[in-house]
Amino acid sequence: MRTVGVDLAASPTHTAVASVEWSTGAARLTGLVVPADDEQIRELARGADRIGIDAPFGWPDGFVDFVVAQQQGDLGRGRELDRIENRRLLAYRRTDRVVVEQGRGRPLSVSADQIAHVAFRAAGLLADLGVTDRVDGWAVEAYPAAALQEWGLTSRGYKGVARRSVLQASCDALTEQAPWLDVSGHREVLMTDDNAFDAVITGLIARAAAVGGTHLPDDTDRPIAAREGWIHVPHTTLSGLV
Fold it and tell me: Which domains occur in the chain, in start order?
């Protein structure tokens, strides 16, 4: 089996793609590309069994309805949008709220934060890749911070040049807890580029999804997730991936 992890950014400059080959009891990082444009992502994803993408797969239903109503001049009165609680359904998807409710992190708002630019790019990429299932298809939505937390690894504070030592400690912790993962030839990049590190984690999340080791929406949330997307948070341990 081969999984691909994409740490998608608004521009190719900060986008990283990792390719992981899996065998019985072992896995090997066979490719790591930084930076990466959409053409390179499509090429690396070709033939992969599962791909994880660190980017929102959709927008909140409430936001979509709001924008359409406003554009058509049919927004209506009395929404009381000066109250933040009345804006949350416009800013956060159901999957975002589930992640928060379960204490697995706090995803950024796809409609009210700069991650919207990533979502624009992701929408085009998903269309190029022919992805239609936003819940549990060939491509799955990943959130590295939640996976790292689930696996007992540092989930924040490792991004940026000033925090390089934290990133290096995180890489060491990953290889210690997952000795079956061979990163030979790519270790230096992982130690110096947090985008590359997140791409590898996203590739592991894709593997977790492939073996049925991620949380899926219940029957009530599934129709919503089909439109908005669904974050795959692992419930299996790192050792459970092999």
Answer: 2-58+93-236 (3.30.420.10), 60-91 (no CATH)
Polymer length in residues for the chain: 242
What predicted TM-score, i.e. pTM, was given to this entire model? 0.96
Distance CA 198, CA 120 (A): 20
Alpha-carbon gap, residue 77 to 133, rounded angstroms: 36
Distance CA 30, CA 90 (A): 40
Residue whose tokens read 């269309």: 127
Distance CA 193, CA 195 (A): 5
pLDDT tens-place string over residues 70-118: 999 999 888 899 998 999 999 999 999 999 999 999 999 999 999 999 9
pLDDT digits (tens, 9 = 90+) for 155-183: 989 999 889 999 999 999 999 999 999 99
Question: 8: number of CA atoms within 13 Å, CB side?
Answer: 30
d(CA 63, CA 65): 5
